[in-house]
Amino acid sequence: MRRVFPIIFLAFLAGCSHGNGDEPVYNGRLEADMIKLSAKINGTIDKILVNEGDSVQKGDLLALINTARYEIQRQQQIAQLEELRLNLRTLDDQMRQVQPQLKLIKDKLGKISNLVENGAATEQDRDDLEAQVEILTAKLDGFETNREIIISKEKQLQAAIDLTDLNIRDARIEAPIDGMIINSYREPAELAAAGTVLFDVADLSSLEATIYVPLTDLNKIKIGQTAHLMVDGMDKTFDGKIKWIASESEFTPKTIMTQETRATLVYAVKITVPNPDGILKIGMPVDVTL
After folding, report:
1. Is the pLDDT of residue 11 over 50?
2. Choosing a second label site near 75 at 20 to 30 A (CA), which of 56, 149, 237, 248?
């Protein structure tokens, strides 16, 4: 999420005059928290389901990106996974065949060893059994190594399937907040790359005005203080609260008209204004008294 200011950033932001009651009047413009909603995957846009100015609720479906390639990719991955699992079952069957053979030969080897000591069997008989034990043991070790390799590949493939599933889910572009579609940048059938901005979505239930207060007036304000806002063309006064005061001064923006005003050091102050009825709009100029 980032703060998006109006495209035309006029001189009023730092302007300051005095009202009839000799209290300072600060000029500002209403802003909103804007979310640039981007595509997370590459693909052709199948559907755009909202228009600029539409109100949306969190989770509403705004657009769909075609997932045909991902669906085919998933089918291939599932087939590969089934093949690995079949290989694993075959390997387990082979291991189950060799294990009793190895046990039987080890039992014979134990008996032959006793017979050799008593002179009832030859050392050659014992050597033959020992060789068979080594061969079967090596075969089992090889089976176990292959089994570990297959299991590792199975985990990698399952992770790839999970990623494909995530891409398919990300094809659904959903509203991240309750708000309004401010801008819609794409049309159906257009190609959207990952990172392509599709919509600007803003929460208009509360707006902000930024004003610039000179050092001489800074000690008169505090966070939480009520501010009164007037909008051109409206008789109603809107009440807001100071939510943030800059800790460092800055020069008044260069767009201020007079050289004297431009040389003034000021502090940025942000004011939150409730907008439950949606009367206030982004970009509206406001006069603020504190």
Report:
1. no
2. 149
22 token code pair = 């000799």
Beta-carbon contacts of 233 under 8 Å, excluding residues fewer than 6 positions away, are: none
* pTM for this entry: 0.73
- Nearest residue to 154 via CA among 59, 105, 222, 83: 83
Judged by average pLDDT, the poorest of 61-75, 170-184, 206-220 is 206-220
Are the C-beta atoms of 230 and 280 separated by less than 8 Å? no
How many C-beta neighbours within 10 Å does residue 10 have?
13
- Please report the domains of the chain, with CATH numbers, ordered by start residue: 2-66+180-289 (2.40.30.170), 68-170 (1.10.287.370)
Q: Which residues have a Cβ under 8 Å from the Cβ of 31 and sit 6 or more positions away?
A: 3, 4, 5, 6, 207, 208, 209, 210, 282
Contacts of residues 220-227 at CB distance under 8 Å and 24 or more positions apart, as own/partner, are 220/290, 221/245, 221/269, 221/290, 225/290, 226/290, 227/271, 227/288, 227/289, 227/290
CB 12 within 8 A of CB 29: yes
Res 252 pLDDT > 90: no
Return the percentage of the chain with pLDDT > 70, whole number.
88
